[in-house]
Every structure is written in structure tokens, then in C-alpha cells.
Amino acid sequence: MFVATVVITAVLAASLAASVALKLSHKPDVVEGYARVHVPEERLNALAGVLACAVAGLIAGLFWAPIGIAAATGVTVYFLLACGAHVRFRDTAHLGPPVVNLLLGAAALTLRLITY
């Protein structure tokens, strides 16, 4: 079961790292995507910082379970709120990536709890 934990955590960490890079790039299409859900460009760096901490916590959590559980919980809540924002602002056409990360976060949390 720990192998599944490592695989899901690695996939989630890679996805979050890509998201961090996109947020920090401030590319016009990225800024526009966040503007659709009323997130101002000034907040992208802070959101990238939150996700960068999540990546570090997920990886560290493979070696010390309490950190991994906390990080996976935070990721799950973060993407639950992101999905809620997309629904609230009727941007369901772009709901896919947050849902995938929500499911990966929930899976990582569940697996880390099982293997604790």
C-alpha cells in the first residue's frame, strides 16, 4: 500500500509543481483564468507559495507521516475551495484541473492515513 502512496503523492506533487510554475509565470492566459474566478493577479504569488509548501510537505510526508497528512489535508481543502469558486462564478468549463487535483489530494490523504 505504501507504493501506491508514493506514486499518488509523486503525481500530485508534480501536478502542484507545474501549477506553481504557471502561477509564478504571470502569463496572460494564466492571469485571465484566475480572473474568471475573481482571483486578482497580485494573489498568484501567494497561491504559488501555498502550493510550493504543499509540495514540500507532501514529499517530506513520505518520511514522516504527520507532515504528509497535514499537507494532503491542506491540498484537499485548497482544491475543494477552488472547485467551489469555479462553480460559484459559473466557470464550470475550467473545472477539470481543480477536480483532478482534489481527487489526487483526497487519495494521497487516504493512502497516507492507511499507511501511517
From TrEMBL:
Keyword Membrane recorded: yes
Protein name: DoxX family protein
Signal sequence region: none
UniProt key word Magnesium: no
Membrane topology: Multi-pass membrane protein
Residue stretches spanning the membrane: 69-89, 95-114
Pfam families: DoxX_2 (PF13564)
Assigned GO CC terms: membrane
Organism for this UniProt entry: Streptomyces coryli
The entry's keywords: Membrane, Transmembrane, Transmembrane helix
Coiled coil: none
